């Protein structure tokens, strides 16, 4: 771990004094997830009208950003976001934020090699501990790399955050320039969507493919959490966890005693993640719990690390897949809705694991404007971003079945994907596949 030395001993100041340091044209880094500052953000919002050309880099906002709300026309501040929450998506739709394409596990390297030094980084942390460290809470991610590259480091202490265990989960007071007092509010909770019948049907198919001792990565959303729910009802034993995001579903498996990590090759016995978002129960469970090991995102997400655990399994959502196996998981045409995140890296890492499997799941249909449409299509919606290329795709799962695309030709892929599309769309998809030469005449 590279450390940074502050130019002078850390000094306690008010949020307004910290915001007064911001000058026109500066790059400010707000960090990510639970690590985004709130008190500093409000203080900066109070003087945003006096500034111009302010750029803020952030990710996965869990609360509204006061500085954006104070500048609804975007005349003074613009944000660059590394992965959208629902709030970030709405700000993007309003033209107040733009997405930076990233593989999440590469972000520390981006800061160290490609992103210009940050003028000011402000990270929300737990209060300083007995060893002089400000814990990053459940948002380890790339905060160490940002701090290494920042000209000024400010921490916003908040007593309401869970304190997480791990080797690189904080910044020492000797690396900090200024300390401001936070609001003490509890960590923002992320509601868990109730599992639908479709979610449960997909989960049943995936659960049948998970063996004792498998090492899981679970993505965000109803379907992956439904898989956790069904695993909890199964007899699967000795699960390991090596994931990007820690979810309530994973914590529930832990609380049921189904996660031992005993079969893991790296970090045995530990539940490894880089950030968490969920309920108060999740935060209470991880608080100072040595069974959970929070690591920087380049430890959790880089494929060459993921593959080191045998029987690694990744379970992620997509919103659209074409008949050749390309998955579009982050946009709706030219409208960006989330981000690449760790999906592609976990698809690659789990495939390379000995006995590993990657699952991309989706409902077969969706409704828009009162009309039902297929998520399995001949061609992706114009402007849609390919998150997982066809060459990387392994298992695809809908409520109508599960297919493995590895080793299959384009015609075989088209047939396989049509077989798990909604029955009402299979005939049309087959006709389109023939018309566009994805299926040769007389095939099968």
What is the total domain count?
2
Poorly predicted segments: none
Structural class, from secondary structure content? Answer: alpha/beta
CATH architecture of the largest domain: 3-Layer(aba) Sandwich
- The CATH topology of the largest domain corresponds to Glutaconate Coenzyme A-transferase
State the helicity in percent bands.
25-40%
Q: What number is the mean pLDDT?
A: 96
Sequence of strands across the biggest β-sheet: 1-10-8-6-2-3-4-5
Beta-strand percent range = 15-25%
What radius of gyration results from the CA coordinates?
23 Å
Distance between the amino and carboxyl termini: 57 Å
Number of helices: 15
Biggest beta sheet summary: 8 strands, parallel
- CATH top level class name of the largest domain: Alpha Beta
Name given to the CATH homologous superfamily of the largest domain = Acetyl-CoA hydrolase/transferase C-terminal domain
Basic shape: globular
Quick one: how many beta strands? 27
What this model shows, in words?
With about 450 residues, the chain is an alpha/beta fold. The protein has 2 domains: about 10-180, 3-Layer(aba) Sandwich (Glutaconate Coenzyme A-transferase); about 195-435, Acetyl-CoA hydrolase/transferase C-terminal domain (Glutaconate Coenzyme A-transferase, 3-Layer(aba) Sandwich), CATH 3.40.1080.20. The protein has an 8-stranded parallel sheet with strand order 1-10-8-6-2-3-4-5. The protein is globular.
